[in-house]
């Protein structure tokens, strides 16, 4: 496991490098990943617009900002994603906003299809679902928490729908986008703070 994570970190990029890559792909009418289709290229274009909007509009509440800034452990946040992934476009900018609050948090991005061993090590219910955040203790290299592919409220929403109807419909996916747009990243922030609190109970006292 250590070797897999170390290799992934060596292949990783910063959030800004990822954003630059997405812009380059749009110019080429392409996408990340092994599968190149017009549909996925269009999703990449749409996701760039989403990330650009979130980069400008996400606001971290003062109480969450205070908690993130008080976290004194060196951690690396390694995020597995692809440019066509809608959930990633909504989640990754929020994680970046949180990481920017504290130099103890190092955000790194890797592509799923280019890191198959890493993805296979962090499946969600047996699936290669993304985005997937792997929280790593920077000093020891130990994995201390994983998160994703969706915020807790969105995941519960999806699971209820799947349990009732068997699969996600186009109409439901539109509803999910509406949820992301109205929630404005708050659930991601709350989930991350909760995870940090479990790791370091005194962090939230």
**Overall spatial form:** globular
How would you state the average pLDDT, rounded? 94
The separation of the N and C termini measures 33 Å
> What percentage of the residues does DSSP assign to strands (E)?
5-15%
The computed structural class is alpha+beta
- CATH topology label: Glutaredoxin
Q: What can be said about the biggest beta sheet?
A: 4 strands, mixed
Number of strands: 4
CATH class: Alpha Beta
Looking at the overall shape, the CATH architecture is: 3-Layer(aba) Sandwich
Organism: Confluentibacter flavum
Protein name: Thioredoxin family protein
InterPro entries: Thioredoxin-like_sf
Pfam family, one: Thioredoxin_9
Commentary on this structure:
The chain has 205 residues and is an alpha+beta fold. The protein has a single domain (2-204), classed as Glutaredoxin. 55% of the residues lie in helices and 12% in strands. It has a four-stranded mixed β-sheet, with helices on one face. Helix 5 (86-99) links the parallel strand 1 (75-81) and strand 2. Helix 2 crosses helix 3 and helix 3 runs parallel beside helix 5 (86-99). It holds the Pfam family Thioredoxin_9. This is Thioredoxin family protein. InterPro entries: Thioredoxin-like_sf (IPR036249).
């Amino acid at each position: 496991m250590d070797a897999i994570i170390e290799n992934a970190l060596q292949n990783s990029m910063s959030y800004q490098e990822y954003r630059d890559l997405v812009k380059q792909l749009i110019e080429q009418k392409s996408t990340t990943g092994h599968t190149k289709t017009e549909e996925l290229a269009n999703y990449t274009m749409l996701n760039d617009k989403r990330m650009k909007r979130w980069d400008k509009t996400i606001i971290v509440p003062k109480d969450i900002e205070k908690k993130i800034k008080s976290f004194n452990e060196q951690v690396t946040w390694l995020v597995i994603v692809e440019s066509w992934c809608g959930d990633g476009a909504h989640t990754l900018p929020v994680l970046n906003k949180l990481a920017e609050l504290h130099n103890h948090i190092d955000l790194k991005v890797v592509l799923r299809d280019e890191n198959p061993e890493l993805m296979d090590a962090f499946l969600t219910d047996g699936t290669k679902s993304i985005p997937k955040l792997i929280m790593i203790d920077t000093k020891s290299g130990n994995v201390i928490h994983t998160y994703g592919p969706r915020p807790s409220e969105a995941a519960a929403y999806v699971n209820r729908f799947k349990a009732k109807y068997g699969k996600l419909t186009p109409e439901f996916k539109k509803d999910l986008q509406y949820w992301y747009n109205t929630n404005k990243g708050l659930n991601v922030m709350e989930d991350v703070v909760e995870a940090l609190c479990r790791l370091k109970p005194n962090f939230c006292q």
